[in-house]
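Following up on my earlier thread - several people asked me to post the actual chain instead of describing it. Fair enough. Here it is, all 517 residues.
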Amino acid sequence: MVAIPSDSFFLAKYIEKKITLNDINEEEIAYAIKANIKSAIYYRFFQLSDINKINQVKPSKQPKEFNQQSNEWFYLAKKLAHTDRTIAFELATIYHIEDDIEQAVFWYKKAAKLGHKKSSYVLIDLYIAENKLLEAKPLLYQLKHQPQELNKLIDLAITLGDKVLFNELLPLLKNLKQSVLIEDIKKYKIFASKLLTSPQQQVNQQLLTADQHCQNSIQLFATNIANLYQLTDLIKEIKQHKIGAYVCFNQPQHISVKQLNCRYDENAPITCDETIWSKFTPEINSRYLGVMLNKGGANVNNGIMYLDSSDDINVFIHEISHLLGFIDEYALPTQHRVCKKPQVKAFSHNIVILKPFYEGTKAEVLAQLKNQIPWYIFIDKNTPLITQVGNKWKLGTPKSHVFNETNPNKISPVGLFRAETCKTEQLQAFKPIKTITNLRYFEAPFVDLYNEFLVTNPNGFIMPSYHYNVAKALFNKNNSLGTQWLNKSLIEEQKMNNSQSIKVNSSRYNKIKLGGY
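Reply from S.P.:
Thanks for posting it. Predicted structure:
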């Protein structure tokens, strides 16, 4: 039996003395913790830290036998963190590592309020990473006289389209002699043009290519300077690639998140309200648009391409391929429009969607395929495309006819090979070659055969212009201006055909007019 003082003052003194002498037992510590004696709480906290080594792991991630002690550590840490800035920061870091952002933010803010200097900087970066720019703004503003934080604040003002803050910060940039950043701001003409009623904007359009007659011109946009750098580098890189001969680019331009209305995360394709492009003055003089955001899945929606800041040249080439008329060779969602029924006629350079079996004579089936397969002229007459199964013909070049792809001296023949793009009982996707290409994996090559498709039929399957996207978006909002923008898209087809009048009977014209893309 141990006599423990019940008075809180004397109990605290008693416990502190026992801890100093290292002469305290578990019962006394437990009793003191219940009495909220801080020295006892610290004693047990550090004891658990040494035993479990859990200062970087949440309880749920611990081996089962440590769970009880781990939970106790977190309980004590949270009691201490309300007044101990170091422990508050430690807690925040653990939750940050474990991607519990809400708890991480709470404890970083607590640590910062208690005077932990590093917490403010880490919290700023966390807010920016989570795209919570308005939360980061006041923290950065307090640190605006520090060069690194000033640059972040400038970038934040650019991203948000906050021209007032931007103009306030420019003198600070000049004082700190940030000449490179200032030159880049001038280069991309950020806030240099008269900003009209949001989201209207004057767009400076300066072609980077010497080919002023390029049909597949692309205007790229980004919300911050880092992404404008990224786009500029991607343009330089793609000019060295064979596919670069089929596209040209205007000077990348800034657009703020205030002007955009996008939904995006790391695990889903980027989607945006595409009616906003109808509000630019003057109208953007380009066939296609591209937007780079910080997060989200890259994709092409008809005449508009979406990228995220982590996308490299391989992704860029893949997405440009889509604008030029190539389809993904990996599995598309079953509800995708191209996977709903067999094609009526060819719609892409590299994929056909056909029935897996046909009936009729061999000559009749091959005649049908000739009209459906855009690469038919590249297929050797000795390469089989169908195999008889009972009274039907099964589509596909047999495996026996495929060269061994491990032999670099052999080239896979052009034929009809199953693709992962679509597959149901009623239809099957086929591609020209067995070889894996960049339409399946970003890192795979854009094969020479696909370049030949562009040489022989460069505009056969290109996407409609971005005007078509705007028209569909306006129609979806019951906006009568949709008709005007649909006509703009048809005019772009006229330009592409290099004709004096639109070919009313052309399949592309009708497909655009009827909203078939």
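The CA atoms of residues 26 and 44 lie 9 Å apart. That should answer part of your original question.
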